[in-house]
Amino acid sequence: MHKQVTSSLLRRSFLLSRGSTNGRTPSSLRGAGASLLTTTTIIPLQQPQPQHQPYTHQHVQTRHYSSHSPMGLPPTTPRKKVTLSKLQSMYKKGEKITMITAHDFPSAHVAEHAGMDMVLVGDSLAMVALGMEDTSEVLVEEMLLHCRSVARATTRAFTVGDMPMGSYEISPQQALSTAIRFIKEGRMSAVKLEGGAEMAPTIRAITTAGIPVLAHIGLTPQRQNALGGFRVQGKSKESAKRLLRDALAVQEAGAFAMVVEAVPQEVASFITGLLKVPTIGIGAGNGTSGQVLVQADMTGNFPPGRFLPKFVKKYGDVWGEALKAIESYRDEVKGGSYPAEEHTYPMPKEEVEAFVGDVRRLMSANASETEGEKDA
Ligand code: KIV
């Protein structure tokens, strides 16, 4: 008796060819159907040889046939790892420190290739990568997941993980235990927290435990509700003095550097000149020791019409390029021009013919058998 070739039979035979039944012919497939399997699918598939140089990486296996090939190759010109003392020496020499955000492996990988000194897993993640309304929504666990993926791509840059709102304000002990998670689980080199003089005991507790802290003063987006929105800070004499007090307090508490956000250039430059640690400006003009920008903003990875703060310079058009590419793909799939011959895996002609011939023969045998059964 011949078994009818059904889609489930073909599926089982496919599975069998991939070894998922441990090479044994299932009892349900024994009989004439199994002869098809023996002649066509139990024979190991001839794997085509790769046409290209294998993509290798010292830590990851090569996969010639998978759509999920590893992203990570370190930059070809090896550079020395950026450490705290390297950052201090850059600062002392007056060399500007470059920092950018990265929220996942690819964005960290490209930052690393571009030679960024510091990579920040900012809580801007909430808005630009997770689509949240503001940064207060993002959880420690979510930050840690993204920190780990960034850490895998950064062999040279000094990495900083941003402690999210609610994970450090309650007490220095709470802050320290969160900071430890960012180092142990997030694989970061340092943590960042927002706040000035009032956070000094917290910064002290974390740095005393041996964890470097990047402070963040001026506009502190996690406190947007208290600040009355995203407002430029230090615009009046009193407010500028408060900012200076904050800068001195976080420095005194052991911060190795501080982000200074949305502050008039003159104030940021003047404060920078009074400190012994670097300032990393964002919307604070050109007189700080370094600069930071959110990667999605500066690469233009957002749709037209999105609001951009005044200080952001758009250096690229990643959105435009991605949109063009995806639209072309859509058109080519709809029009049938993709995939072309060069995107397919070759199979020896005789194998194709033998396969098609066997299946056709079995199908016609099945058809005659079914006719016979009907007539009987
Ligand atoms: O979350 C972030 O990306 C930041 C930078 C803007 C400094 O805090």
Structure summary:
With 376 residues, the protein is α/β, with parallel strands linked by helices. It contains 14 helices and eight strands. It has two domains: 36 residues, no CATH class; 240 residues, TIM Barrel.
Structural account:
- The protein has 376 residues and is α/β, with parallel strands linked by helices.
- It folds into 2 domains: 36 residues, no CATH class; 240 residues, Phosphoenolpyruvate-binding domains (TIM Barrel), CATH 3.20.20.
- 42% of the residues lie in helices and 10% in strands.
- It contains 14 helices and 8 strands.
- An 8-stranded parallel β-barrel has the order 1-2-3-4-5-6-7-8, surrounded by 6 helices.
- Helix 2 runs antiparallel to helix 14, helix 4 runs parallel beside helix 6 and helix 7 packs across helix 8.
- The longest helix has 27 residues.
- About 14% of the residues have low confidence.
- The structure holds 3-methyl-2-oxobutanoic acid.
- The site of 3-methyl-2-oxobutanoic acid (KIV) has 10 residues, from loops.
